[in-house]
Specification:
single chain; about 220 residues; Response regulator transcription factor; Sig_transdc_resp-reg_C-effctor; Sig_transdc_resp-reg_receiver; about 50% helix; transcription; about 15% strand; WalR-like
């Protein structure tokens, strides 16, 4: 039996945090490693506990969730799944820029929350392709954004890696990419890992945003 997914819950509202913890503890394959009431505590506990994933509220005192996400991801302490009350607010865009692996609405049903945690923990990152495509399109289309890269960065990728990157830009999961490109899902995971390394990106969500920005 594989070890459970260790999750750190970062949420400043105690009632909401208690509800999230209750849901997570209902799953035998998920373990609540700790709880944080603000962004600074979230980063400190991530350093101390080294969870697999941080469930991060974007609006918190002392240090907001976006800044906390950036620190956690930059230090490679854990993957981050951000929580928000609105699917297209500026905090979510900032969290994706900071390297979050995905986002989730606070009104998500318990079953979907658990599946989202499992999805991010296994490296997928794109929780709901339909919603993610909308989010990525809105983010990439903002006129005030600064370009993150020039098309020349694609020269680092093989033809197959470019194809996989294009699929990520459409919000496809590994399984969907495997079907689209007629390859094994394990091979897709390998290509995703390699292209993230070559492009110096921290998550597949960032890769999806880059694909949108470059129009591939």
């Amino acid at each position: 039996m594989s070890r459970p997914i260790r999750v750190l819950v970062a949420e400043d509202q105690s009632a909401v945090r208690a509800g999230l913890v209750l849901i997570l503890r209902s799953a035998p394959d998920i373990e609540v490693a700790g709880e944080a009431a603000d962004g600074e505590q979230a980063v400190a506990l991530a350093r101390e506990l080294r969870p697999d994933l941080v469930l991060m509220d974007v609006q918190m005192p002392r240090l907001d969730g976006v800044s906390a996400t950036r620190q956690v991801v930059t230090e490679r302490l854990a993957d981050v799944l951000v929580l928000t009350t609105f699917d297209l607010d500026e905090y979510v865009f900032g969290a994706l820029r900071a390297g979050a692996s995905g986002f989730l609405l606070k009104n998500t049903e318990a079953r979907q929350l658990l599946e989202a945690v499992r999805t991010v923990a296994r490296g997928e990152g794109l929780i709901s392709p339909a919603v993610t495509r909308r989010l990525i399109a809105e983010f990439a289309a903002k006129p005030t954004r600064e370009p993150t890269a020039a098309p020349a960065v694609l020269d680092r990728l093989t033809r197959r890696e470019r194809e996989v990157l294009s699929c990520l830009g459409e919000g496809l999961s590994n399984a969907d990419v495997a079907d689209r490109l007629d390859m094994a899902e394990a091979t897709v995971k390998t290509h995703v890992s390699r292209l993230l390394g070559k492009l110096e990106l921290r998550s597949r969500v960032q890769a999806a945003v880059l694909a949108q920005e470059l129009g591939i």
